[in-house]
Amino acid sequence: QSISRAWQEQFRAAVEDGIQRLLLPSLEKEWWRECLDRAAEESFRTFASNLRFKLLQPPVKGACILGVDPGLRTGCKYAFISESGSVLTSGTFFPNKEREDVASKLLLLLEKHRDPVIALGNGKGSREAEELIRQLILPKAPSAKLTIIDESGASIYSASPLASKELPNLDVTIRGAVSLARRLQDPLAELVKIDPKSIGVGLYQHDVDQKKLAEELNVVVQSAVNAVGVDLNTASPSLLKYVAGIGAKMAESIVAHREQEGAFASRADLLQVKGVGKKTF
């Protein structure tokens, strides 16, 4: 009996040691790994949903837009764009200095156009700029409308080589205001110029696998572009490259052909573009 009891005690001690030292830690790690994987997948779905929502915001067509990139120390940068997105004028104002003069200057711009829209970024200084606009401008320009928009990624675009190519004669700070205005005018066409991860798709996006996140977001951009479609005669290379079957190189070729030969009369004209064969078409 003593031998049996001693064996049982040793067996119980071995089992308890195995459970406490080996099994439970292993199960805990496996459980945490599964929880983290589930959380990551849910994060990817949330980020993708947020990005798609931003990309598919309805565009503001047929209106001139005053884009305002807010700031306090360096002032608010503004850019006024036409219905087609070309820059009409730009400048800087300080929302807390010479408010009446600033309001008069901006009113002159707005009054020249029918039903203008003001696109104000939501960055630092936005509250002061909004106060100026609501108190001194909108009451005197009843046809004008004010919209607060997310400016995530605008500064990244303004300092990019693409922005330098598109807006070579404008200062980097002004390019951000142009981007905000165009973002309201045609969200999809403007946001595709920015790395999807820089658009601000959710909190803690830097805590997940960046490669997987980039892949997931690129799929969303491609899906959105192909769902909406593009205009061959106005689309930029940044937009065209997301169309199914068209990559970055072919997008550049299409735009180059359009600039040299003029507008496309039909989709069949794509066959005239170098690199577009019947199989690709």
TrEMBL record:
**What region holds the YqgF/RNase H-like domain?**
63-158
Organism from which the protein derives? Guillardia theta (Cryptophyte)
Quote the InterPro entries the UniProt record gives: Ribos_protein_bS1-like, RNaseH-like_sf, RuvA_2-like, Tex-like_dom_sf, Tex_YqgF, YqgF/RNaseH-like_dom, YqgF/RNaseH-like_dom_sf
Q: Which SMART domains match?
A: YqgFc (SM00732)
Q: What is the lineage of its organism?
A: Eukaryota, Cryptophyceae, Pyrenomonadales, Geminigeraceae, Guillardia
Q: Which GO terms describe its biological process?
A: nucleobase-containing compound metabolic process; translation
Please state what the protein is called: YqgF/RNase H-like domain-containing protein
| GO molecular function list | mRNA binding; structural constituent of ribosome
